[in-house]
């Protein structure tokens, strides 16, 4: 609609430019033709045309415009150049009107695509009697070039105007129309970050967008309720299992002094207790900001790892496994990071699924502190590396071995709780490296 209105307004403006240029050129040359008609009055009566011919030649040299004078019978009596053909259609029409005592009509508009000369004729009159006519053959190239430049400027102004209208009117309208979709996109990103209570407004929207918003809110509510039920189930199961497991352990611990079989049962009870503890921690780590306390001092990750390794060195030594303590670079991390649980999972996995020697190190990498545990076992394939940390996932090579598939999921949740991440990669020389990368606290003073 805007384009149509702009074109409707531009057409008469373009016609005005072309017609105005034609009229200006015609009027300026009409004055010259009147002067020649006056100068030709006496020569046409006396027959002395030498001076008139000289005036025509000088005029063409000065203005680059051919001129000629004819008598009442359309015979050329003086010209600035030879070869004038009075039978040319434009000249013939102009002479027929002029010699009849009438002024020719104004020429048509000078459009850039038109060619040819403009014929300007004026009658030579004495006492009301037409003696002949003075005719100018006016070139129009320069005038048409000027019209073309003016039309290009008009077109440029038209395009700028349309662009301004689009920016000033259409763009805000488009943004207003698409705002509900932008709100929906922002809400989707919030949910992917864990804010399951995010909702979109459906007030004042089009019916289709209102239905879309209602459907999105229903989906978000169902997802929120499902996650809440999952947390409640895990928390309730952990709580309900903890008491009978403790009671069973007390009874079996008494029997273990009498029966070797009871000692195996005690080991299984302890394993079940660790599973319950991990489930409880995994449910709590889903809550954003759980256990966070911004008032505590940063934790030196290297120091915490070294303290935990004291006990693990004895465990590894009892199983004839080599545990190497590598580089330990001090670095402050969030105090709520459960270093003991993370290291227990990584070292237990390395002992069960990898091969010695197992190396533990703490380093810095830019703005991150990196806890790395490396073993020299078979490692994992590229597909399995992408699944490390998924709940209840276990590699096909390790499914026959004892485990729940929750260990690395807990590690990943613990790292994410303080803004960190878990990276699994194959090191040079084979094996597997699990890196827990957490943000470095800049103001930590080692």
Structure description:
With 446 residues, this protein is of the alpha+beta class. It has three domains: 2-146, 2-Layer Sandwich (Beta-Lactamase), CATH 3.30.450; 207-285, Orthogonal Bundle (Helix Hairpins), CATH 1.10.287.130; 299-439, Heat Shock Protein 90, CATH 3.30.565. The protein contains ten helices and eleven strands. It has helices at 2-46, 50-63, 89-99, 141-192, 207-255, 260-285, 301-318, 339-353, 382-387, 407-417, and strands spanning 67-71, 76-79, 118-126, 129-138, 299-300, 323-328, 332-333, 358-365, 368-375, 421-425, 432-439. A five-stranded mixed beta sheet has the order 6-8-9-11-10, covered by helices on one side. Strand 1 and strand 2 (76-79) form a beta hairpin. Helix 1 (2-46) runs antiparallel to helix 4 (141-192), helix 5 (207-255) packs antiparallel against helix 6 (260-285) and helix 6 packs parallel to helix 10 (407-417). The chain is rod-shaped, with a radius of gyration of 49 Å. Residues 287-294 have low confidence and may be disordered.
Structure summarized in a few sentences:
The protein has 446 residues and is of the alpha+beta class. Helix content is 55%, strand content 15%.
Sheet with the most strands: spatial strand order? 6-8-9-11-10
What would the principal axes of the Cα set say about the shape?
rod-shaped
| CATH-derived architecture of the largest domain | 2-Layer Sandwich
The total domain count is: 3
Oligomer: single chain
Give the structural class: alpha+beta
CATH class of the largest domain: Alpha Beta
Report the biggest beta sheet as strand number plus sense, adding barrel if it closes: 5 strands, mixed
Strand content: 15-25%
- Rg is 49 Å
């Amino acid at each position: 609609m805007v384009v149509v209105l702009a074109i409707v307004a531009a057409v008469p403006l373009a016609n005005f430019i072309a017609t105005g240029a034609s009229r200006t050129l015609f009027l300026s040359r009409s004055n010259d033709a009147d002067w020649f008609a006056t100068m030709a009055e006496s020569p046409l009566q006396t027959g002395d045309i030498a001076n008139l011919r000289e005036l025509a030649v000088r005029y063409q040299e000065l203005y680059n415009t051919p001129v000629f004078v004819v008598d009442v019978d359309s015979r050329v009596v003086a010209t600035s150049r030879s070869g004038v053909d009075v039978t040319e259609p434009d000249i013939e029409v102009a002479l027929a009107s002029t010699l009849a005592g009438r002024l020719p009509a104004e020429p048509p508009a000078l459009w850039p695509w038109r060619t040819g000369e403009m014929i300007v004729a004026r009658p030579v009159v004495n006492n009301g009697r037409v003696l002949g006519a003075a005719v100018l053959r006016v070139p129009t190239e320069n005038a048409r070039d000027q019209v073309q430049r003016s039309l290009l400027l008009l077109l440029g102004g038209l395009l700028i105007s349309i662009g301004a209208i689009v920016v000033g009117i259409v763009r805000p309208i488009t943004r207003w129309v698409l705002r509900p979709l932008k709100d929906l996109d922002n809400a989707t990103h919030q949910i992917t970050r864990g804010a399951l209570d995010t909702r979109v407004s459906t007030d004042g929207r089009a019916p289709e967008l209102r239905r879309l918003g209602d459907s999105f809110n229903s989906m978000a509510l169902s997802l929120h309720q499902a996650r809440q039920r999952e947390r409640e189930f895990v928390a309730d199961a952990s709580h309900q299992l903890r008491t009978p497991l403790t009671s069973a352990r007390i009874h079996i611990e008494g029997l273990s002094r009498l029966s070797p079989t009871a000692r195996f049962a005690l080991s299984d009870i302890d394993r079940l207790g660790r599973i319950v503890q991990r489930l409880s921690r995994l449910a709590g780590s889903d809550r954003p900001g759980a256990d966070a306390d911004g008032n505590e001092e940063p934790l030196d990750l290297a120091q915490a790892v070294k303290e935990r390794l004291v006990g693990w060195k004895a465990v590894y030594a009892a199983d004839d496994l080599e545990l190497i303590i590598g580089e330990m670079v001090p670095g402050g991390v969030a105090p709520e990071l459960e270093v003991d649980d993370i290291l227990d999972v990584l070292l237990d996995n390395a002992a069960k699924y990898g091969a010695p020697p197992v190396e533990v190190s703490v380093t810095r990498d830019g703005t991150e502190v990196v806890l790395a545990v490396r073993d020299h076992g078979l490692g994992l394939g590229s597909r399995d590396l992408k699944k490390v940390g998924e709940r209840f996932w276990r590699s096909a090579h390790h499914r026959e071995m004892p485990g729940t598939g929750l260990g690395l999921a807990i590690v990943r949740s613990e790292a994410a709780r303080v803004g960190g991440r878990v990276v699994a990669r194959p090191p040079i020389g084979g094996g597997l490296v699990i890196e827990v990368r957490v943000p470095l606290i800049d103001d930590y003073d080692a």
